[in-house]
């Protein structure tokens, strides 16, 4: 190889090396851009948070009313993106304290936040999340008979075979609110400190229950059940048994006790739909 050929070979090598290094940079940049495009951005959560911050500004206002209600909505591109926000402030629990209850409703979710209000300071007491299709409603009343109004949220699962009215309860305590209690198909009797309800199962194939509040705990008192054979099949809708908390038979009943006759959805238990 002569000098001229050697020089041309060196130039060719340097040219190829230069092309290779230049071509790598755009590819890497494209990969970074593609990664950014594929990374999920939860814009719905961001918008829900913005709605909460706007609601908190309203909640901090001093309206000088027993109960004040504000509502506002926001949308993005289409009606399906609408977020409805409701702000309730004032003496909501009739205990002399100010509270702020904020409810945000979106197409697939519900957010409920409860705050205790002192001047412009808000202390969060409850932070509840639920799927929109499961949410039925919420209310405030004394559940356990301690003369304090509690928060009760009603939800119903979107799947399942049988009656499933679920109540989620937050007890109003001196130091705040309790953790969540869950009751299935309940009927609350605050004066008795009792909860009566229907367990999960097909009509005529399930049991009644009776619970009692014992401070922050819930004691099981008894069950009412139809006679079943060893396969758990109902033999007779005419014979009722009273069972203890372990579901051991206590006695045979001639009729359904009066205390259960008017509980919510009793016809489901009796198979009289």
Describe what you observe in this structure.
Helix content is 21%, strand content 44%. Strands 12-13-14-15-16-17 form a six-stranded antiparallel beta sheet. The protein has a five-stranded antiparallel beta sheet with strand order 1-2-3-4-5, covered by helices on one side. It is elongated. About 5% of the residues have low confidence.
List strands and helices in order, with pairings:
Elements: H1 3-38, H2 43-59, E1 67-76, E2 78-90, E3 98-105, E4 109-118, E5 121-131, E6 135-141, E7 150-155, E8 166-170, E9 172-173, E10 176-177, E11 181-184, E12 186-189, E13 194-198, E14 208-214, E15 217-228, E16 234-243, E17 249-253, H3 266-270
Antiparallel strand pairs: 1-2, 2-3, 3-4, 4-5, 6-7, 7-8, 8-11, 9-10, 12-13, 13-14, 14-15, 15-16, 16-17
Question: What overall form do the CA principal axes indicate?
Answer: elongated
Rg, nearest Å = 31 Å
Percent helix, as a range, is 10-25%
SSE pattern, N- to C-terminal: HHEEEEEEEEEEEEEEEEEH
Uncertain stretches: 21-25, 33-41
Strands, count: 17
Number of helices: 3
Q: End-to-end distance, in Å?
A: 102 Å
Strand content: 35-45%
Mean pLDDT equals 85
Oligomer: single chain
Provide the structure class. Answer: alpha+beta
Query: Largest beta sheet, briefly?
Result: 6 strands, antiparallel
Strand order, largest beta sheet: 12-13-14-15-16-17
């Amino acid at each position: 190889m002569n000098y001229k050929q050697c020089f041309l070979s060196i130039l060719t090598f340097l040219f190829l090396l230069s092309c290779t290094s230049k071509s790598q940079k755009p590819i890497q940049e494209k990969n970074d851009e593609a990664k950014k495009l594929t990374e999920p951005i939860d814009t719905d959560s961001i918008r829900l948070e913005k709605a909460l911050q706007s609601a908190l500004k309203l909640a901090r206002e001093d309206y000088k009313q027993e109960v004040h209600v504000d509502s506002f909505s926001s949308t993005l591109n289409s009606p399906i993106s609408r977020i409805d926000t409701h702000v309730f402030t004032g003496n909501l629990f009739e205990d002399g304290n100010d509270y702020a209850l904020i409810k945000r409703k979106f197409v697939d979710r519900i957010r409920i936040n409860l705050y205790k209000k002192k001047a412009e300071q808000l202390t969060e007491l409850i932070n509840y999340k639920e799927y929109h299709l499961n949410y039925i409603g919420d209310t405030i009343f004394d559940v356990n008979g301690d003369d304090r109004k509690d928060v009760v949220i009603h939800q119903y699962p979107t799947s399942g075979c049988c009656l499933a009215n679920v109540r989620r309860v937050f007890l109003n305590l001196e130091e705040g609110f309790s953790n969540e209690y869950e009751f299935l198909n309940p009927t609350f009797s605050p004066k008795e400190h009792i909860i009566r309800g229907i367990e999960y199962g097909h009509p005529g194939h399930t049991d009644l229950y009776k619970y009692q509040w014992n401070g922050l705990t819930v004691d099981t008192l008894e069950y009412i059940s139809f006679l079943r054979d060893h396969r758990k099949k109902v033999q007779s809708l005419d014979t009722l048994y009273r069972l203890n908390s372990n579901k051991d038979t206590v006695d045979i009943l001639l009729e359904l006790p009066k205390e259960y006759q008017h509980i919510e959805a009793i016809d489901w238990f009796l198979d009289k739909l």
